[in-house]
Amino acid sequence: MASTGPGGGPDGAALRPASAAVGQQAAKASPHHAVAPANAMEPAAPLLDRTGWTVTASDEETGAENGRAANVLDGNAATIWHSRYAGTPAPLPHSITIDMNRTAVVSGLVYLPRNDGPNGRVGEYSISMSADGQNWGSPVATGTLADDAAAKTLGFAPTGARFVRLTAVTEAGNRGPWTTAAELNLLGDPGTPAATVDLPRTGWTATASDEETGAENGRAANVLDGNPATIWHSRYAGTPAPLPHSITIDMNRTTAVSALVYQPRNDGPNGRAGAYTVTTSTDGTTFGTPVAAGTWRDDDTVKTATFTSTATARYVRLTVTGEAGNRGPWTTAAEIRLSGPANPATHGAWGRITGFPLVPVATAVLPGDKLLAWSAYAVDRFGGSNGYTQTAILDLKTGKVTQRRVDNTGHDMFCPGIAMLADGRVLVTGGSNAEKASIYNPATDTWSATSNMNIARGYQSMTLLSTGEAFVLGGSWSGAAGDKAGEVWSPNTSTWRKLPGVPATSAMTADPAGPYRADNHMWLYATSGGRVLQLGPSKQMNWITTAGNGSVTPAGTRADSQDAMTGNAVAYDIGKLLTLGGSPAYDNVPATRRAYTVSVNGNQVQAARTGDMDQARAFANSVVMPDGKVAVFGGQSYPVPFSDATSVLTPELWDPATGSFTPLATMAIPRNYHSVANLLPDGRIFSGGGGLCGDCTTNHADGAVFTPPYLLNADGSPKPRPAITGGVPPQAPAGTSLTVTTGGPVASFVLMRAAAATHSTDNDQRRVPLTSTPAGANTHTVSIPADRGVVLPGTYMLFALNAQGVPSTARFITIS
């Protein structure tokens, strides 16, 4: 080690994170953007060894060419499997089945298209798994692939199987009834346990075989303090304690345990756990045979050891027998968590992974059970100002995804502002083409250009106003940095009006990168009279008026919160918002666990700290549900764009009645920078995306639907739901009453605004509880508030809830 200690710096001082340019690879992107970290170029899960594998296909071409299925396993991209085409071509669908001839945990399929032409590229697909080659069950993943030659990684929840089948339903370009593949690979266990949930750590203690207490605070207890900046470090002062090192968690109660989650230190590589075993005990003395064993990669990503079977234990011991990089005899850990089996009625459940033909960086919920998504000029990367955008629409009823490149607006809509307009259209502004603005009309499924903004922007925020106009502020990521004052778009004239009295300066954070980062992703809440409360991410809150030249008036600070860039805010009730997570700067600083409530009553704004999340999060997404609870998905405890390191895979649910967070079922795929989440019309939640960094492995061109616990029984079966059977017109003015009929008793009604999300920000979310009175058997008079500052004009989902808080499927209604 020469003159450096175990921490990586002189005298054992911790090695601090390098600057963004060190050890990282360019993301083939705009010069504005951060570069992709080195670990974004490595797969999160190992490629499985193909030795002994065999493959069969529904059909193959053996006459006109060597198009045998076996070619996908020969390691030669120039040889391909081709569906039969000589004579009478075999019709779609075509399937190819890999037999690993052994059972393994599989979490993804890597499809490499042929490189000598486009014919036969897989379009719509499904992936199925089997233990015996006979019983397949429901697909573990479905989706649509982009029509290009890039390798496609199709992820799904880790599943143990021997057989894996890829079925091509369509040809990507609809050129014919063919399917081709150059190579197929499978990904192994990424360390993400399926159907588990984080166990609460209250009352836990930790002891270690040895710990450093002299040269630094490296006590074992640090792995349970919720702070990844504090670590357990094996003893190194004087004579270092030799490997192996062990750390034992005493839960002080006996419970079912399914996995151990290990978070490496984030300030340097020394002491990362490599080879390890996990054992359990009921008494702390007798530990049985290992329930998990293996070797972790030498990187800073969160690692999971999934047990061979669920154990009933009080004590769980991690024993590290090798340092991942063989740098020395040390072991370190930032945090250790344990997971147990999930209960659907308490923790919810995840559906299958749905593949998209692009990384869904931005999404909007549409009437007709559709979800609009888009990325940039490319499906997997961004950069420049190319004048077109890759878009897709997910049909929530069928699960099918259709792709379209939008050229007619001349607008690359990457990193935009979004506002859901009063008539249900979607206004998208700026981004890579920083001055442009485009509108999507769901009624006609068409895109059109509207007038350019006065100020070129990217990473700006928008909200609809009570007047029906759209307000935009900030956005120094694109265009010249700074001076991103507010402006307003009129639906009557389709033009923009400057607001010289609304500079962005008072709403900026103190980010060390200056305006380029400090005026991004603002949290905006529109109220009566065309006013807006800017409540973050800066700790300073502000009232904004939009009449005339506009004005900005301080509204106080967000209690004791610091700046919280890459956090978010959610309007969970009338005049009540919840803010979650974030970090003092855009990236490369620790995120916070803190959450705050912000209450708005007329001109008065009050902020207070509510319960903390169990885990710190930046780049997370939050969704308010019809019952008023708020679910938060994904994020990182140490935000780094394009990285899956320090990912938080356990969602949490905030209850306004208690102010506390509880864990939800573990996610299969990280959702960090460039991820999204949206409430769906059936009361479930879509979570997807992340990445868009070119040839990196952290591109997540997929999503999954989460079923919240309010919809499920303990056995996973659906709870009986109320139903709205009539009385909901397609449009109604604010201040009117509806006579709504239901299929049975209901306790309440609520309007949920159809929302749009990007970059962890969704200013369109809004929950409006409604006053209702009985009007006969299963008939209710439901009153819509008259104040357009409460019920902004636009498209809403009307839910009925029963006495247990179970929501109906929504009916769409446009409030004018």
Q: Could you explain how this protein is built, in words?
A:
It holds the Pfam family F5_F8_type_C. The chain is an all-beta fold and 816 residues long. It has two helices and 56 strands. Strands 3, 5, 6, 7, 8, 10, 20, 45, 46 and 47 form a ten-stranded mixed beta sheet that branches. It has an eight-stranded mixed beta sheet with strand order 48-50-54-53-51-55-56-49, with no helix packed on it. Strands 11, 12, 14, 15, 16, 17 and 19 form a seven-stranded antiparallel beta sheet that branches. β29 (461-464) and β30 form a beta hairpin.
Can you give keywords for this protein?
816 residues, 1% helix, Ig-like_fold, GO-like_E_set, 10-stranded mixed β-sheet, 56 strands, Discoidin domain-containing protein, disordered N terminus, 8-stranded mixed β-sheet, mainly beta, Kelch_1, 39% strand, single chain, 2 helices
What is this structure's SSE topology?
Blueprint (H helix, E strand, L loop, with lengths): L23 E2 L10 E2 L16 E4 L23 E2 L11 E19 L11 E7 L10 E4 L7 E17 L11 E2 L1 E5 L8 E3 L6 E4 L23 E2 L11 E19 L11 E7 L10 E4 L7 E18 L11 E2 L1 E7 L2 H4 L1 E7 L6 E5 L3 E5 L14 E7 L5 E6 L10 E4 L5 E4 L7 E5 L4 E5 L10 E4 L5 E4 L13 E3 L6 E3 L16 H4 L4 E4 L5 E5 L3 E6 L5 E7 L10 E6 L2 E5 L14 E7 L2 E6 L11 E4 L5 E4 L18 E4 L4 E4 L11 E5 L5 E5 L12 E6 L16 E3 L4 E2 L4 E6 L5 E6 L2 E3 L8 E8 L4 E5 L10 E8 L9 E5 L1
Parallel strand pairs: 7-20, 49-56
Antiparallel strand pairs: 1-2, 3-5, 4-9, 5-8, 5-10, 6-7, 6-8, 11-19, 12-14, 13-18, 14-17, 14-19, 15-16, 15-17, 20-47, 21-22, 21-52, 22-23, 23-24, 25-26, 26-27, 27-28, 29-30, 30-31, 31-32, 33-34, 34-35, 35-36, 37-38, 38-39, 39-40, 41-42, 42-43, 43-44, 45-46, 46-47, 48-50, 50-54, 51-53, 51-55, ...
